[in-house]
Amino acid sequence: MVHTKKAKILIPTRTEDVNFSFEETWGLLAKAIDAVYMERYGPFTFESIYRLVYMTVVNEKASDLYTKLKVYVGTKLESQVKDLKLDWSRGMESLKIVVDLWDSQNLAFDLISDLFLYLDKVYCKPNRYPEVFELCLQVFKDGFVLPFKIQIFNAFIETINESRRMKSINEGDAQIWHQIARMMQMLEEDYDTVFNNQFEPFFLDETEKFYDESFDPNQYPPIGCLEEVKRLKDIEYKRDLKFLDSDTTSKLTTVLEKVLIWKKLGSVLLLLVNEALKNDDFLLLQELFDLSSNEQYKQGIIDSIKKYILQDLQGKKIDATIRKKVSIAIEWVSFTIEKLDHYTNILRRLDFGMDKTENNEDVSNNSNHSKGLIPNVSVVNEVFASYLDQNKRRAPEFICFYLDSRLKWTQQKKEIQSAKEDLERCVKLFKLLSDKDLFEAFYRQQLSRRLLHQRSSIDIERWLIKRIKEEMGVFFTSKLEGMLRDIATSNDLSNNFKNAYADDIGNIEYIPQILTITSWPFSNSPALEEDIIFPSQLQQLKLDFEALYSKKYNQRSLKWDYQLSLVEIGYQFEKSYHELSMSVYGALILLLFEDRSSLTTEMIEDLTHIPKQELHNQLLHMASSPKGNILNKLPASSAISPLDIFSINESFSVPTRKYKVLTGPSMNIPSSSSSRTEPHNVIDNVEKDRIAECNAAIVRIMKQNKEMGFEELYKDAEASTAKRFALTDRIFKKSVKSLLDKEYLRKEISDSHILHYIP
Question: For 341, what's the count of Cα atoms within 13 Å in the CB-facing half-sphere?
Fold first, then answer.
């Protein structure tokens, strides 16, 4: 009797039998193989069969034996397959028959390989032929599995799909699936296995097809769709683990993600993200993000988040009417800051599965604050930067209005601390602006008003400029810091002047403001008037201050700009006392009436030397203000003539003690309460500065490269100016034209798109 346990065999003495007959020997071996299949071993022993194989190999018939064995095993398999009662329409029953056949054949193959052990050792291994067991597996593959591949695969997938439809797992069925999968993993094909080459692709495709056809996300509400996808994915994973290896399970998970998450759930993904953000449900967002590790899917969620946030921001309508400009600006910036904080706090709690970025420039092109940003925060910043860019001109001005409103009248310690908290939130916003130079221009304009009118705390102004410097760099704050230095210098000079000339000053409160012309936004000031006549006391103060300044700064030139100055005069009218705030020119006119009851236009001009056009402008506004006339005019007309007579309007009265006398649009510094700015002037000036900066960048680039194409030069210039503003084609072309006119550049004669630097 043949035993499956291998025994130690004594190898016969190597000799050739002259009476050896291969046909007779093969006949005996064939009967032994029959006995193996019938499990009736009769007179055969392991040693006797081993000796027959040995004698065949020794007599150089190994090749014939190998061929005969392959054919005979195939014949036995064919005979057994014919006896099978396979009805492939009965899926699981057919698979059980296949498993039984595989088990019986596998046992027979194992015994046959033991019997032909010497053939493996002496013939198969040295010649690199499949050993007997592998040969039998090939016969089984070619004789049964491949001919019935379609039927086996279809029966397999039908039973799997039935389990999927029932949404349950039968342990007995799972065992059959496992054995079928194991069978195909043991059958080699083209340096791989039948499982990997044929079954696995089929199974993955059919799985994708099943869920694509059977699952309709429109049958569920968005949250219900998510729950169903999670449930299907979970039960499929549990089912697959029972009969598939980890590698195939991983591939199947990818297929499930593709069809259930990317495709099916993807159709309602935007709705789910909107629902999560609408309800501040960061747990739902995290759950959506964790459903798949696919980068494209994750990017889809991020894009949906961006889209929702941008739509939320765009839902805020801006009233662009000039009358409400400041209040609308404050409301809009407050809304935007609130949204920025809100979405930052939500997304900061999410785990995007990514580490903090390092040396990663964010959307505002400012590396100072982009280092170490959490990717979640970068997503929010990108959306808000895009939103601000859609309001390219309005956003910088509105942010400056907001800053101005928080900085004004902030004097007390508690107020300063509260203002700093609000300003710190605003810093997060203005650093996202692409046109930072426009922000700087508006901010410098607002800062000049606050400083000159003493409407804010110097400490908090200095703190905010320091924060701007930290976020944007020293280039943005050099002029702002210069303005603060001027105010500090002015305060020191004012104290020194009061101490040195206390007797001469008397009851006049004299506040000098020494301004460096390159730091302050007064480039459009008209030519300074040197021969204006002041009252004697004011003239003496002016001369005394000039002497003090020259003594301390003998290398500097001091120029007086009367149009930037303000004078406050207290006057008792018939009904009430008022403190009148007005320009220097207006004050000079009013002070003439201290010892005169009336004056003509011609007389006022002779006594003050105010330029004629400016004088007419001042008189017209003082005598025809809508809120009340400081002066009476005869005749009462809207035109000014040399013989018109002016006098104090003693019946003047307004509800407030302090009154601002409007004296015409020629004033360069409007009052701090004014809600109007001149954005078109600011933008025009900024454009000139941009052209100048672009000129400098192009010259630097061309000086280094000597020759460049137009497009290449544009890219380099764009990168060079990106920290201050977004370079446009129009600015670039103007700059190139300017440099061509100035002969810094010349065009290639044969190709106008090539530029050359002219040393």
Answer: 12
